[in-house]
Design a protein that fits this description.
heterodimer; A: mainly beta
Amino acid sequence: SQKIEQNSEALNIQEGKTATLTCNYTNYSPAYLQWYRQDPGRGPVFLLLIRENEKEKRKERLKVTFDTTLKQSLFHITASQPADSATYLCALREGGFKTIFGAGTRLFVKA
Amino acid sequence: GAVVSQHPSWVICKSGTSVKIECRSLDFQATTMFWYRQFPKQSLMLMATSNEGSKATYEQGVEKDKFLINHASLTLSTLTVTSAHPEDSSFYICSARRVGGENEQFFGPGTRLTVL
C-alpha cells in the first residue's frame, strides 16, 4: 500500500542548530514533493516544492533534498530559532490533481 | 499574494443541522480547490477536489450527499455539512491551486466544527 512516513516523535533541538526532518514514501512515484509548516489550529503554509528531476532546493534558511532512488526527502532548517517551532508536513503529488500529506513531525526549538 | 480565507473560523451547531463553510481565494484565481479534514495530531485527509463549474470529485469513503461542495466561481468554493452529527466534528481546511502557478497549494486558516 502507499505510505508517506514522517517521524511521529517530536524533534527537540537547541536554538542555532540545524534541524533535519525526514520524509519517506513507498509505492509512489511523485512528480513533486512539497513541505508545509502548520501551527496549532491553523492551516498549513507552503514552504518549498521540489520536482522529481531536482536534487536540492534552497530558500533562505531552508533546504530540501529529494532522492527518488531512496524514496526520501530531507528538510533542513539551519540556524534554527524558537519561532521555527511548528509541525512540518511532507506532501507528495503524482500526476493529476491529488496531493497526499504525511502526518507531520513536530519540531521544538529551545532558546 | 496567494491568500485563501475561510469563513467561519469556528462554528458550534446542534446535531441534525447543516453548516456551510466558505473558502475564497482573495488575490488569485483558482481553477481547483481542495477540501480536507484533520483530526488532532493526524494528517490532512483529502475529502474532495472541486473544479470551477463542474462537479466535485470525492475521495473513497466520503459521502457526497453529506458533504456538498459547490465551486461557483474561480475564487469561491463552499462545503456544506448536511445533517451534522458529533462524529463530523473536526477541523476542515480548504486549499486552492493557483492558475499558472507552480502547483503548490495555498491553504485557508481552517474551520473548527463542533457538533453537539
